[in-house]
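Q: Predict the assembly, please.
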Amino acid sequence: AQTVTQSQPEMSVQEAETVTLSCTYDTSESNYYLFWYKQPPSRQMILVIRQEAYKQQNATENRFSVNFQKAAKSFSLKISDSQLGDTAMYFCAFMKPIVNDMRFGAGTRLTVKP
Amino acid sequence: DAGVIQSPRHEVTEMGQEVTLRCKPISGHNSLFWYRQTMMRGLELLIYFNNNVPIDDSGMPEDRFSAKMPNASFSTLKIQPSEPRDSAVYFCASSLGREAYEQYFGPGTRLTVT
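A: Predicted assembly structure:
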C-alpha cells in the first residue's frame, strides 16, 4: 500500500518570504502522479500543482514549484513570495493511474504572517 | 464552469436518522469520488465510480453507508442509520480520467449527528 508522509504538522513564514513544505511517499510503482492540494479556512480543496513521475522536470505554477526526487521518493512544495492568502492546510497526495486511488498525507498547516 | 456541486452544505441530524448527501460532478468527467475528512483520520477515500460504475468501495466504513450514481451527472451518499461518529466533512470530487487524473473537489458537506 502507498503511504504519504508530511512530517511538518505546522509551519509559519513571513509575508514575501519563501517556504518549503516536505512530503515523502512509499511505493513500489514506477508510474504515478503526485499532487499538492491547498485547503484554506473555507475548507474548499484546491489543486495547487501536479507532477507525473515519468517527467524529470519539476512542475511549476506561478509562485508554486516542486522539487521531485524520484529516487528519494520526495516531493516538496516551494512557495515563493508568500502571501497572506496562502495561509491554509496543504496536503500532499499520491495516485496510481488507472486505479485512481488517491492517498493523502496528514497535511501541513501553513500560516503566513504579515 | 460550475465546478463540483454538493448539497446540502451543512446537515444536522439526530442519531438514527437517514442522511443523504448529493453531488453533481463537473460535466464531462467520468470518475467520481466520495471522501470523508475528520481530525482523527484525515482524508479518507470512501468509494469511487468510473463511468457510473462503483469500482472500489473498500473505504466504506460499514453497511450503514451506501452510494449510488444513477447517471453521469448525479451521485448520492446515504447513511442509514446515522451515528454521532459519522460527524465529519464529506467531499465529492470528480476527474476527467485517462491522462488527466487530477481531482476537483466540491465545497463539502459538514455533517453533524447529535
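Chain B touches chain A through 22 residues (CB under 8 Å). Chain B is about 0% helix and 55% strand.
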